[in-house]
Write a structure and sequence with these properties.
Layout: E1 6-10, E2 13-20, E3 29-35, E4 41-48, E5 56-63, E6 67-76, E7 80-81, E8 84-85, E9 92-101, E10 105-118, E11 121-135, E12 141-151, E13 163-172, E14 176-183, E15 193-205, E16 208-218, E17 227-238, E18 241-250, E19 265-273
Antiparallel strand pairs: 1-2, 2-5, 3-4, 6-9, 6-19, 7-8, 9-10, 10-11, 11-12, 12-13, 13-14, 14-15, 15-16, 16-17, 17-18, 18-19
């Protein structure tokens, strides 16, 4: 699940909706929220910003307990990540599994179809692995730290795009989340890449959420101009299904990654948790 994440506790099971926001194929953000049995929203803490599919929610459902396995599948009209379109205007199929222990440690894997072609090479699949720790003390702030490994199995490219990213997240007052990401080998190009992302989430009721976010990619060392990206949308949960409709936009960068710019577009996604 590589991108954002919220947890809604209801009727004896946890539904974790991971929301992937904004830009290219290398980013992640997760906010953890819980809902008590009566539908009241309570903050459980920030989770990792896991890069999932394009501007959409990845729904996770699993029995509540000290340790939780949460598999999910998603169909999205496009895979947008931090301002980048990673499925070239085509639908993306995604799946992931996430485990979180009661101590706060979590790990998981997430996969998606992609449609990436440049320098005469192709990538058709993405497979990510992550490990992290989430700390939710009594108080207004929750924090999380994550190590995320991006891989592209079967890539037919001139060099290896696989790389590792380190993420720090903080959630304030159950509503606002801030993420910072750093890699010293972004896209496997032996160059530094960073990003900042701020998000806000406003539950309308137990099954409806309006959310928006903005982020800034720092990729000049990699050969792409630094640029902003943003999104706004809403999601609705129907049992173990979640639907998300989101508007994405971004500054158009120049340089080596300009061809991935997502631009202005709506993205619709349907997710299911098991």
């Amino acid at each position: 699940m590589r991108k954002g994440s919220k947890a809604l506790r209801s009727e004896g099971f946890t539904v974790r909706a991971r929301i992937e926001y904004g830009a290219s194929r290398d980013d992640v953000t997760a906010l953890h929220m819980q809902t008590s049995g009566d539908g009241q929203a309570t903050q459980a803490g920030l989770r990792l910003n896991l890069r999932a599919a394009p501007a959409f929610l990845v729904l996770l459902a699993a029995p509540a307990g000290a340790g939780e396995w949460a598999p999910t599948v998603t169909l999205a009209s496009e895979y947008v990540y931090r301002g980048q379109a990673l499925s070239d205007g085509n639908p993306a199929v995604q799946a992931g599994v996430d485990y979180e222990h009661g101590s706060g440690f979590f790990l998981g894997a997430w996969a998606s179809t992609v449609d990436l072609e440049n320098f005469g090479g192709r990538r058709d699949a993405e497979l990510d692995f992550y490990l992290g720790w989430h700390y939710a003390p009594d108080g207004p702030v929750d924090v999380a730290a994550t190590v995320l490994r991006y891989t592209w199995p079967g890539q037919s490219t001139y060099f290896d795009y696989d790389y590792t990213e380190f993420l720090l997240n903080a959630t304030l007052l159950d509503t606002w989340s801030l993420e910072y990401g750093y890699s010293d080998d972004i896209y496997g190009w032996n160059a530094t890449g960073q990003h900042w992302e701020l998000r806000g989430d406003w539950p309308l009721q137990s099954a409806w959420v309006v959310s928006a976010g903005a982020g800034y990619n720092i990729l000049d060392e990699q050969g792409t101009t630094n640029h902003w990206y943003w999104d706004v949308g809403g999601s609705a949960r129907f049992g173990r299904l979640m639907v998300d409709l989101r508007w994405y936009d971004n500054e158009t960068p120049t340089g080596s990654l300009a061809y991935l710019s997502a631009g202005s577009q709506w993205v619709l996604s349907l997710s299911a948790g098991f």
